[in-house]
TrEMBL record:
<dbReference type="InterPro" id="IPR036412">
    <property type="entry name" value="HAD-like_sf"/>
</dbReference>
<dbReference type="InterPro" id="IPR023198">
    <property type="entry name" value="PGP-like_dom2"/>
</dbReference>
<dbReference type="InterPro" id="IPR006439">
    <property type="entry name" value="HAD-SF_hydro_IA"/>
</dbReference>
<dbReference type="InterPro" id="IPR023214">
    <property type="entry name" value="HAD_sf"/>
</dbReference>
<dbReference type="Pfam" id="PF00702">
    <property type="entry name" value="Hydrolase"/>
</dbReference>
<dbReference type="InterPro" id="IPR051806">
    <property type="entry name" value="HAD-like_SPP"/>
</dbReference>
<protein>
    <submittedName>
        <fullName>HAD family hydrolase</fullName>
    </submittedName>
</protein>
<keyword id="KW-0378">Hydrolase</keyword>
<dbReference type="GO" id="GO:0050308">
    <property type="term" value="F:sugar-phosphatase activity"/>
</dbReference>
Length: 225
């Protein structure tokens, strides 16, 4: 029987790079600039979904009217604020080693992020990933971002593998929900701030602390050389 090809589809922020809280503070600054008062913890609970959906949900909670011009302005302010914090971003423990292991083992992998390339570029640079060489799927390339499955379906297609044979690795419940809708197995990491129970309830079949934890248990998810 021919062995089916396993692939890993990674989220970026909070999964491979330590950038979730930079995003939270950038959104907080953007909202404050627009005179919208919202607790930081409420913003954190929405990180991982698309910027447009995030602003829709956050502004709905505040009862603030939203129009396309204001939504676009918020996303621009977030991108500018995040860009000023980009030098603070570092790869999470084991992230580079995990990607190197998969490459050496001949196991396909790619990155699928709800961010646009404008904000993803600094984190990809920190990770040492060149999107000219590694297929990277961003919000710019799909109709809907998480929790819709489009990003991960597009990522599997870019690799030429079946989504049913793919693992989605992410740090948020939005990643796990998108994985379930895409019919992929979800692997959770807690490096973005969500707890083990939350990730498991959203559909993760394994949860690790961070990329290093996944690398140390890669045999549990079929990541064989």
């Amino acid at each position: 029987m021919e062995r089916r090809q396993t692939a890993f589809l990674f989220d970026l922020d909070g999964t491979l790079v330590d950038s979730v809280y930079q995003h939270v503070l950038a959104w907080h600054e953007a909202l404050e600039h627009e005179g919208i008062r919202l607790s930081v913890w409420r913003i954190h609970r929405r990180i991982g979904m698309s910027g447009g959906l995030l602003t829709d949900m956050l502004l709905r909670e505040t009862g603030t009217a939203l129009d396309p011009e204001r939504s676009e302005r918020l996303q621009r302010l977030h991108a500018e604020s995040y860009g000023r914090r980009s030098k603070e971003i570092r790869p999470l423990p084991g992230a580079k080693e995990l990607l190197a292991y998969l490459t050496d083992a001949g196991i396909p992998w790619t990155i699928a992020t709800s961010g646009r390339m404008e904000t993803a570029r600094p984190t990809l640079d920190a990770l040492g990933v060149d999107p000219e060489k590694i297929p990277v799927v961003t919000r710019d390339q799909v109709r809907f971002a998480k929790p819709d499955p489009d990003l991960f379906l597009a990522a599997a297609a870019r690799l030429g593998v079946a989504i049913e044979d793919s693992y989605v690795v992410g740090d948020s419940v939005w990643d796990m929900l998108a994985a379930r809708r895409a019919r992929a197995l979800g692997i959770g990491v807690m490096s973005g701030g969500y707890g083990e129970a939350e990730l498991e309830r959203a559909g993760a079949f394994r949860v690790y602390e961070d990329p290093l934890g996944l690398l140390n248990h890669i045999d549990e998810v079929g990541g064989r050389r």
